[in-house]
Every structure is written in C-alpha cells, then in structure tokens.
Amino acid sequence: MRKPVIGGNWKMNKTPQEGVELVAELRDDLGDMADVEVIICPPYPALLPIGSELAGGNIKLGAQDLYWEKEGAFTGQVSPGMLRACGCQYVIIGHSERRHVFGETDAQVAKKVRAALDEGLKPILCVGELLAEREVGETEIVVKRQLEAALAGVRGEEISTLVIAYEPVWAIGTGRASTAEDAQDVAHFIRRTLAGLYDREKSEAVRIQYGGSVKPENVKFYLAEADIDGALVGGASLKAAVFAQLIRNSTGR
User: Fold this and answer.
1) What is the tens place of the pLDDT at every residue in 32-76?
2) Which of the residues 37, 53, 95, 104 is marked catalytic?
3) pTM: predicted TM-score of the whole model, two decimal places
4) Which one of 7, 52, 72, 158 is most buried, by most CB atoms within 10 A?
5) Could you give the C-alpha distances from 44 to 33, 156, 192, 230, in angstroms and in order?
C-alpha cells in the first residue's frame, strides 16, 4: 500500500519568519497525523529555520530546486549537500516553471535527479504538458520523453525513492484543474511507462502526485483514483488552515 504524500510548494512566497509561523501553526493543527506524508518546500532562505522548527516531527522538509555540482564557482546556485545540511529530505526537480520560465532542459533535469540521489535526497520529479501539446494529443509523448530523459541514470533499486508529480502546465496556478479522470489516465500512463523502464513491481512502488490548482474541495477526488497517491500543492499551501484542511480531506478525515 503506497502512503499518500502531500507536498506544499511555496514558490517565491514567505519570508523565513512568516514560514516558521506557518509551519508551527500547521504542525499544531495536524498533530501527530501519520497516515499521510506531508512535505513543505519553502524558498531557500527559509530552509534552515523551518528545518529547525520541523525537527523531530512528522512533517518533512523539501527544497524547490538544486544544482548538480557539489561546490564551485556557480553564482546563485545551491548544492545537494547544502540542502541536506539544512535538513532537507526531498527536492522538487523539473517543475514546469523551471523548464518554461528558466529554460531548464531534460538533460539538466536528469543531472539534478542523479545529483539528488547521490546525496541521499528524494526527488519529486515533475512532468507535464503545455496546453498546446494537450490540444494536439501529445500529452503521452511529452510525458514519456520527460520521464525517459530524467530517469536515464536512475537504477532500478533507486526508483522507489522518487515521487513523480504529474503537473499539466495549463493547470498550474490558473484555477483550471484537470479532471480526476484525466489525471488518472496520465498517472496510469506514467506507471505503465515506469513498468517498461524497470518492471511492474518497481512501478507499483512509486508514488505519483497530481499538481495543478489542487484545493481542499477537490483533493479527495484525485486521491480516490487508483494511480494517484498524493498532490503537489501551490497556492493552497500558503495558508496553514487551508493546507491542513486539504491534508485532512486527502485522507478522508
């Protein structure tokens, strides 16, 4: 049985102090809830204080990106080891904003996945199509290309440590969410693709999230689908009460 996983991607929001206050409120609200894994991914400056605030609790810390080199003259970049030192266990890789706003390539995503695994971090690998690609029926072509490229250096014994987040680009931050049925179709395709790259048993161990305008009101419909094990949440993770309700709704509480 795959454990549900809900990630909160704060993007470029919250000062360190605001972030600490939010996670303290969230932790108090959720208590010792253990039937769902919760991951908070704040901006880089907030990682260390939020990591300290979350230490010893059930909520995990993740980063929004990383660079694949361990150290060196790479102004503005953050290494996997630096993230680990801040208490991170997870890291988002290949988010559509990294791909389409900052020009990140499939090859760069693959380097980041490999670097994260080498440092003991668990990647949350994002894949998803543009609206134009969906409208011409290329969703599966795009998702398969992204998966195959990103996982080219991932060994079979490592694949279960990854979380795959299906995030259709046209649904992120737009209020236009994919239907649960459509999201399930792509999640099932992802699982079949993983089975082809590895084997069925390994593919069944991988948790797949849906991301794109997920809210407390709709999260339960996504997690009711057979191949969707969680959600990667943007705006709804920026208020503790809203995010806590979303998490409770994901477990049917």
Assistant:
1) 888 999 999 999 999 999 999 999 999 999 999 999 999 999 999
2) 95
3) 0.96
4) 7
5) 26, 31, 35, 24
